[in-house]
Amino acid sequence: MAQGCLKCLKYTMCAANFLCFICGVAVLSLGVFMIINFNLTSLTPSLASFNIPKLLLICGIIITCVSFLGFLGALKENRCLLLTFFLVLFLLMLVELTAACLLLLYETQISDKIKKDLDEGMKKAKDNRGNSTSLGDWDTIQETFQCCGINNASDWGNTVPRSCCQKECDRSNPPYKTGCLTKLNEWFEENFLTTGIVVIVICIVEVLGMCFAMTLFCHISRSGLGYKL
Predict the structure, then answer these.
(1) What are the phi and psi torsion angles at 62 (to 5°)?
(2) In sequence order, what DSSP letters do the residues of 97-112 get, joined into one string?
(3) DSSP 78
(4) The domain 110-181: what is its CATH number?
(5) What is the DSSP letter of 177?
(6) Residue 145 in contact with residue 183, Cβ under 8 Å?
(7) Cα separation, 102 vs 46, whole angstroms
(8) Could you read off the pLDDT of 73-82 as tens digits, one per residue?
(9) Per the count of CB atoms within 10 A, which of 70, 147, 166, 196 is most buried?
(10) How does residue 148 score in pLDDT terms, banded at 50, 70 and 90?
(11) What are 171-201's pLDDT values in tens digits?
(12) Reduced to 3 states, what is the DSSP secondary structure of residue 2?
């Protein structure tokens, strides 16, 4: 009976670590995607200083490595590996929850920082219209969110970039009426619920992993097989 429970715990632990591994790969992929597609450092230097894509990349690597550690600990019935897995996973969950709480607390300040960065980026782009980097960042954000300027097209003055329109800007094809600041706020609000659900699911998976690790740890301790190789 005891051996049957031990095997059940081992397989359940492997399944939980597989889910953790999938979550780690998802976070890793999101970090790579943001590095490739959202490198708008000249528009939002305040957010760029946090280097969110690279943080996601590092978190994804850590989660995948930790899930492998838990899998190996369960497979080898090694208490040291299981305890290490539990502690590291617990610390990761605390970091994730702390980061989520900080984002909620400083949501208004972050929005003000983004607006300030956009104002400065707009000024630089207007002063250096020949600079492909400044205009390229604005072209990317305006084409992606189908917006124009910070508040509206009048922010560009008499020369409106082609990215403000679906094709060439003329009377039959006027610039987008909505500013990029409004579009960005709408995008964050629309994805807020999805992001919250993803964070909750990741935390649930991590809690399950910790519960199974501690249960297996205690079971192995009673059986005296804690350092089996």
Answers:
(1) -65, -45
(2) HHHHHHHHHTHHHHHH
(3) B
(4) 1.10.1450.10
(5) S
(6) yes
(7) 16
(8) 887 778 888 8
(9) 70
(10) confident
(11) 667 788 888 888 877 777 777 777 777 778 7
(12) helix
